[in-house]
Amino acid sequence: MAADDAEVLIWHPIGRDVAEVLARLGANLTDSTMTRLRGHFAMTLICVGPAAAEVEAALASLAADGQLLATVRAVSPDGEKVPAGEPYVMAVHGADRMGIVAAMTRVLAEAGGNVTDLSTRLTGSLYVVVAEVDLPPGVADALARRLAVTAADLGVEVSLRPADPDLL
Fold first, then answer.
1. Tens digits of per-residue pLDDT, 136-163?
2. Does residue 162 contact residue 112 with C-beta atoms inside 8 Å?
3. Interior CA angle at 107 toward 88 and 38, to 5°?
4. Nearest partner of 69 among 42, 46, 30, 31, judged by Cα
């Protein structure tokens, strides 16, 4: 960035308000995903703390004007961790058409892959899919070839590459 450039982060007021309600309740936000989808702010939050009914009651005032649709439910703690596979990133891009996500994730599943995160974006006529996946050891090369065949049938491009480890 140039010296006079500024990076601005704008967080939707609903997200801020939900976070404040949870903090007042003593809820510890452990996992979350938040994004804008076609102008709508969408959140999935996992919290440790108060009971689901208490959280739902506390969020009711934010939902009263129709700006927030909140569904609150208790979730069980993580069970035994299944050994993770090898982390990869699959990226698909091309002209928008029906069935891209279904076809590509079917190929991943047939190879024993597990999608751990997936996002899509439509920009004009360009459709982009980015998926983080765990793969069984040793299947990446054969899977990349099968993905390429499926992508060609759909008229899109695909890449499969090892994921960079997260730096925390």
1. 999 999 999 999 999 999 999 999 999 9
2. no
3. 70
4. 42
